[in-house]
Amino acid sequence: MTAMHCHFTGRNFISKSLSTFLPLLSIVQTQAMAVTIHNALPSLNALKSKSIIRNRPESRRVSANSVRCCQVATSDKQSITVSNGNDSLEICRVLNGMWQTSGGWGRIDRDDAVDAMLRYADAGLTTFDMADHYGPAEDLYGIFINRVRRERPPEFLDKVRGLTKWVPPPVKMTSSIVRESIDVSRRRMDVPCLDMLQFHWWDYSNPGYLDALNHLTDLKEEGKIKTVALTNFDTERLRIILENGIPVVSNQVQHSVVDMRPQQKMAELCQLTGVKLITYGTVMGGLLSEKFLDTNLSIPFAGPPLNTPSLQKYKRVQRPSIYY
């Protein structure tokens, strides 16, 4: 893994929003190339109110030369470029997560949410992470990107990235199902090409995830997706995907100083193949902040209320039962 150095152009923004968490981000930097912050940053409160025919490589065992993914840090250390063959994408090392738009955090005011996204982008945090099932997240990004097109110079637009996820039910993955789903995200985000499509699969006993990823690779070659990636895949399935010659560039998984499951097996495979880890839950929804210092979370009502889905989720991380 490549170290993650957090350096931003908006100095005041850091002191108000990220100063508490930067030491924690430094601790996990040796395992992740980028982290996703969903609802730990105060100024995101507004988001609470987030056919081409080709020859495929034959299946093969993973070796050090199996996948030619790489990353190159830019000189200012604020962004990183992930690449696989001819595919490349420059993203920020800290991503703006939009999970909090999916419900459970209260009513979302559309205009306030988009204003907040613009403030983040102006501060140098120009990469946004969302999903097809995060409520109106993709729609908000579509409104946001159109405001960027109207109100910011072209060179600013070139820095903005929208990373989304596709989380389908484990049904038969036909080309038409995959294409229609990706077209929906493209329309909602109002972009001709998705910067990154991160794929999730619920049931590993159903090998249809390989069909889906092959169809996604076809769409990439058609120019509808720039990079294909994974989210929440375990080490065994990641190895199978790579052995089938599918060019994924990253896998987004949960990782923090409390939850270090990816270090058991996933990190070793990623180091071997060049696939990069994007991590979420790095500050556990805010649990790893001064607000919760000296709080015994096992005692009801002993500290600040765990009144968001993320705080409740990451409280359970103390006893994780699933291993990567």
Automatic annotation (TrEMBL):
Sorted UniProt keywords: Signal
Signal sequence segment: 1-34
InterPro entries: NAD(P)_OxRdtase_dom_sf, NADP_OxRdtase_dom
Entry annotated with the keyword Isomerase: no
Entry-linked Gene3D superfamilies: NADP-dependent oxidoreductase domain
Superkingdom of the organism of origin: Eukaryota
Domain NADP-dependent oxidoreductase: 95-298
Protein's name in the database: NADP-dependent oxidoreductase domain-containing protein
